[in-house]
Protein: Histidinol-phosphate aminotransferase
Organism: Campylobacter lari
Amino acid sequence: MKFNPFLEAIKTYESGKDMDLVAKEYGLKEVIKLASNENPYGTSKKAKEAIINNAHLAHLYPDDTMSELKQALAQKYDILKENLIIGSGSDQIIEYIVHAKLDHSKAYLQCGVSFAMYEIYAKQLGVKVYKTPSLTHDLNELYELYQKHKNEIKVIFLCLPNNPLGECLDASAVFEFLEKIDEDCLVAIDGAYNEFASFKDSKKHINPKELIHKFQNAVYLGTFSKLYGLGGMRVGYGIACKEIINAFYKLRAPFNVTNLSLKAAVAALDDDEFVQKTLENNFSQMKLYEDFAKNYKIRYIPSYTNFITYFFDEKNSTDLSEKLLKNGIIIRNLQSYGLNAVRISIGTEYENSRFFEEFSKNF
Amino acid sequence: MKFNPFLEAIKTYESGKDMDLVAKEYGLKEVIKLASNENPYGTSKKAKEAIINNAHLAHLYPDDTMSELKQALAQKYDILKENLIIGSGSDQIIEYIVHAKLDHSKAYLQCGVSFAMYEIYAKQLGVKVYKTPSLTHDLNELYELYQKHKNEIKVIFLCLPNNPLGECLDASAVFEFLEKIDEDCLVAIDGAYNEFASFKDSKKHINPKELIHKFQNAVYLGTFSKLYGLGGMRVGYGIACKEIINAFYKLRAPFNVTNLSLKAAVAALDDDEFVQKTLENNFSQMKLYEDFAKNYKIRYIPSYTNFITYFFDEKNSTDLSEKLLKNGIIIRNLQSYGLNAVRISIGTEYENSRFFEEFSKNF
């Protein structure tokens, strides 16, 4: 059977290892996963209750207007419901961006190393990718490339803070950059971890309302998968002017988010205590990872997220990840990003102590 | 801002009315929804328990290999896990079919009136649609159109039984038809309601194993949204030879199904009692709808599904649907399919009695 030729260029995405499968494979009693930047404090109590209280409604199709969650997000950000689209994770909004603006004759721009899904979706359409020489976000380099290829570049992805490297631009610098970009180029501000950055340093805070009111060509991406502890429920969102939201809506399949996910997300937004605890613990535990790296003379970039990335000079990140895996610690090897580095999600105090223990033994 | 030109041709999908919103709008205490073919007996006890017992894991990304659910489905159908792909509803598998095989230079074929999502996905790519003159499946007409346009037609959708009309072809006739279709044309057998048809008449039963072993160009679609009572959880699947599954996998975004949906689906497969009760009650209640139609001299097609479609000669289906809506009964008006007809999901005994009551008053 012949398939559309563009499929040939697509590699099938291979996901990280599941904890249960790792436990079985290596005969382990305990497996600690510090690989997917999930919330180490679990699901918020309110979100869990919302799921349990609505489990008996699992037979009913979701409210496809998603009005309850849109109302809650509109209130949080002081925007209109018409400025919102909800996706199966913010990944799905990335997919809409790529499909609405790009094709094989166009290009998108990102820094040297950023979230893998931008490129995965772009390659599905044969879209060209421009990356800056610097791995982290450098606005001068980004602007230089944009200027040189502005006829092709119709989307720019800025990941603030950046996954998998952890650095973050100041909001003021981003707004200045946006002033220089043509109105026909869509600029996506991926704020999947922006709450973490904002907590550490308010200068990093992107205000979606201000963003979309100043720039008709900007879209802000948010998610419930990280701070809000709902990685398994697949809920993210895009915030933009109505014109952009309407275009994305044309690409959305009906019922793209489950009814329990919608209920859980509404409840999670209301759980301030859980959010505060997560943010505070994250950065107090992050300090331990920084101190640990200094002790072992490991290079790292100060992180504005819920993970930290260690770079190696002599040791091989693949060997190290595999050794840790066999001892029940899953971290993310970054060789697939072309880096001899690992990304470690900041876990609970206990999980982190286990990481330090196993890492010390195997480093 | 300019978007890709193909977006202009796409109409935004408008979903059915949500019960809570209808209740608010019309100030109703009770709203009965017989519009989306959901399971009127709710969520199976086992599935509900699986959701409740796993709610505390909502922060963890789903196992993207989906091995537990694939194992359960492989066992149910006596096939390999490699013959399976899981989607966010079987809708998502329809999307993969369209995107893997079709573009603006190709066409797909269906009977006169069938599931709306085939055409919605096809239009996103500017794909041509051929429909038979007959509203219901007529294999001779389908074959005639196929023969005439076989250079263009690269996908055929057969909906067995057919949504929204309810009729169903015999499996033996479908297999004979498949013998005559070229290997490069993908034939999708949409079995979303096939369990209902098989229960009523075993001649309607499509055996996915037999189908894919005989035909390398066939894909079977199944869902957990109807019989298995998980419409809100968005789980469906495709069964085909490995070559087709591999092509679809290239189009799949990671984590396309929530972790609680996977757990619920595994549990639902194991709840035979719930499934049996649903099937038995469905057809005993269906009989009441047939008798009711005969009394009122309303035309209907004998249904092999969990819904029945009433056709009107003089009354207008839009007026009637609106009258019922104001009285708290939501049914599906089929004017958008070009039919002066309504589709009514078979509900519980009480729900159906309320439908008969309000229908009698307003007809």
The first helix of chain A runs from residue 19 to 26. The radius of gyration of chain A is 20 Å. Chain A has two domains: 3-41+271-359, 43-269.
